[in-house]
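Appendix B, Record 12. Input sequence as logged:
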Amino acid sequence: TFWKTTKDADNALTAVYASFRNSTFSAVPASGPCTELEYLSDNAVVRGTGGAPLNIQQGGINSTTGGVLNDMWTYSYKGISAANYFLDNFDKVKDFNKLKAEALFIRTFFYNELVVHYGDVPLMLQGAEVGSGYDRMPRTPRAEVVKQMLEDIDFAIKWLPNIAYTDGHAVQGSAVVLKCRILLNDQRYSDVAKLAGDYIHDPNNPFDLADDYAGIFFGKQENNPEIMFSIQFKAPDDFHALDQMVGSRMTIFPSFNLRASYEPNDPRIKMTMYEIGDPWPNNNKSGKFEEDGNKAEGLIPFTQLAFKKYVNPNVEVPKASTLSDQHIVKMRYADLLLMYAEAMFESGQGNDPLALKALNDVRQRPGVNMPVKPQLTREIIRNERRVELAYEGIRYYDIIRWDIAKDVIPTVQYDESGRMRKFDGNLWPIPQSQMDIMGDVWEQNAPWN
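Logged structural output:
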């Protein structure tokens, strides 16, 4: 009886978007933001003496590890479930292609997360009903899931409006970025080069690089020309704890490896992290980032670095009562430009001036103005992605698809005693709670099977 008016459908779609509101995909009050998951990569280290973060850093994860290994599965399928419910019912009001496109974009987003982390996963395209056999459904081969994702995202690209991103609703550019990510995971570089290139060079492309790199993450997010999709917040009713967890407790902080990846005098260093001696609001003695006079909730990390990107630089000693409402950026134009440069290079078109221009446009953005690169190489492209997109949840997906996680993760020191990280493999185990239900139908991922 709910589905009667267009407003009903709009409200239901808002509930589908709410699937992003958790600490795995954005942020929630009094909990860590999704940006803390940067520690999955070689860019960051997380504090903690137990739980999933420690198991992931020291190696030895298994199907009962919990934490993000469970949450990624659970929250993704909750999002898929919400999208399926919407898709099963919204046409009772009217068949609005734009609404359908948004729901398919969200469902595809979550399926992409699942195949990246778990491989084969059950592909469900309708809401589950008692007696429908969903509880005996096998894991669908990854290739079939990807085929469906591409079909759905093509619909989204066709029907989403080609306008700037403003109000939290996906637009055509959002879907283009998502399709590029899906294709890159399958090394379909020529397809990415054409898709990204056609969109970037279209005179009706509504996106551009912002003139303030730091403002993308705090201070200048509203109607920002570079943000292509984000999870939006607005205090005091809709807030999260990023400033407290990251800015005061410093629960996650940059690794030595990330700091070493920057070229000398790259201004993005100071817009991404605090170093010893930098101006810092949490020191009432010197006003600098140093332990003497530190009034933050946490000690300065052993790397002598802390994240600055996203953090409100004016908030002193943020606590749970401090209302943070930074939008969590999931896609932005610089990423699309760099995916285009990478796809052009990997498909044998690296000498095309447009490919080199895309990378240098990112390096030459106002306020960064790094020297232009005279040519593209794989090393240059990959490092540019690392420093430009640091602490945005991108690096882990990059090192997995490049199949270098096994090489770079063990080079990360994760505590003050000098212990180095270990890596357990590109795929995670299916959560044991799911295997307990489906164990006679599913085979666990290796080496946990």
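The CA atoms of residues 60 and 424 lie 7 Å apart.
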